[in-house]
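Submission sheet (multi-component)
Chains listed below:
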Amino acid sequence: MRAATIVDRRVEVREHPDPQPSHGQIRVRVRAAGLNAADLMQVEGHYPAPPGWPPDIPGMELAGEVDAVGPAATRFAVGDRIMAVVGGGGQAELAVVHEREAMPVPDQVPWEEAGGLPEVFTTAHDALFTQAALSPGEHLLVNGAAGGVGTAAVQLGVTAGARVTASVRSVERRLEVAALGGDIQVIDPGDAGAHGPYNVVLELVGAPNLPTDLAALATGGRISVIGTGGGSRAEVNLGLLMRARGRIHGSTLRARPLEAKAAAARAMEAHVLPLFAAGRLRVPVCAAVPLDDAAAAYERFAAGSKFGKVVLVAG
Amino acid sequence: MRAATIVDRRVEVREHPDPQPSHGQIRVRVRAAGLNAADLMQVEGHYPAPPGWPPDIPGMELAGEVDAVGPAATRFAVGDRIMAVVGGGGQAELAVVHEREAMPVPDQVPWEEAGGLPEVFTTAHDALFTQAALSPGEHLLVNGAAGGVGTAAVQLGVTAGARVTASVRSVERRLEVAALGGDIQVIDPGDAGAHGPYNVVLELVGAPNLPTDLAALATGGRISVIGTGGGSRAEVNLGLLMRARGRIHGSTLRARPLEAKAAAARAMEAHVLPLFAAGRLRVPVCAAVPLDDAAAAYERFAAGSKFGKVVLVAG
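Outcome: structure written.
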């Protein structure tokens, strides 16, 4: 099979042996696979794949048809449309994944959206609900709302009955973010302090925002840190955190063991996929690039100022 | 009535009008009332009492007999032994408190221990269990373990089946902390990093410890910040927090509204007072000082290097 391959801190497409599904696994003929910030970090040598995943093939999510079924795998049949978060190896013609980490693709979701769906929606759902327990009527701030996780979080916040404020650095992206849902307030990041207090802050930029996040936190508020592209060494005023009776979560999806990834997939099946089936959520795709042009897709991703996902698609 | 009174950033005992219990309240003839760090901050002008509490009479906890019962108060009768966390005014001959904030004093607990029990055990229980969800088999680090909240937390950790490591700065206090329970590992604060990983860190010192707390946090670990005597501006490496999939809580008891204080009192009745009744918990009292000598009690408290509580006792 052909796969995006990390060679000397760059990505090129190379031939690899076909992977074989073992106990409990399924093999997927990949139709689409999204790019994520972690892929870029891995290509640059900063974020190796966890043990058990291909070390040189990037890709933390995929969608495609089941191509072969390993021993004791019973959830899916050959030909089923599935998608999954994986620890690596998604940007290839074939990939194997444990069946408990896989989810069905709703009929309404086209391949290029499905390929960019699992990582960002699982991350956003886990951060907002499993960790931060976002509830109807609460005020959610999404910092860095134009990217993949940001556009997922904004939509999930709206569907869950939260009041959503979205901070977006790029002026050109603001109308697109505002169009994601019913009543989204889109602001400049510098104005976030003036629009609080917030019950939940989803922090996708990192350290530079923490002082404002904390100062604008409502009593009992939760800050969920999922991205640190803007820096990771934050100054935290513990007095403010105590006064707000608040908490700061940090999380990543990739390093989680099978049981945690499978639990997150079940939460997606129960709480997110029905909303896709009902047409209430979508995956904005800013570029769908053939797998053979993987290097160009990485360039587009690294250039920034995207609205939604960059996705690799198979022939 | 006589009461400790804040006059020009010092404490002296002065005469005040007797407080009257209103709807749902009880009046307590105070037998003992513990000192806490917040009292010292209030005396120094940094931490005013929340609205509705005496502004000039310190004291965040008390124990005594019910002396009068206000309209619609039905939980206690005159003469009952009760104790409570209050927003202020505890260090007096009489104090009023809502009956839902009050708890019965177990028969086995003498007055001077009861007067120093509510604030520290409610704070420690709330931080360890309600917030950090400490569970049997987990490893708990208590930073600043020789003080009031520290000695409470160490004992609660032991009774809950956690493995407890206690950091204590003062060499003289370490044997006393070790004697609090079954199998407590008492260490120098500088060695905390070497004894992890910790599932839960109860941070009673503050900012200087946060880098070590984070570096030694187990996957899924929780840091609960309750005291910042050592400083409140912490440097937090968000990358470490994300990798650990950890969280940092901050909390105070004093500013909470009636319903939250009452809920904490119910949790104490359900989970902590039975352990006092069974003789499995105690309140170390390092000094019991007559109310008339309140100024001396504050000096003792401010001198530091205490094991357990400084308590004012009534005649």
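Remark: Chain A touches chain B through 30 residues (CB under 8 Å).
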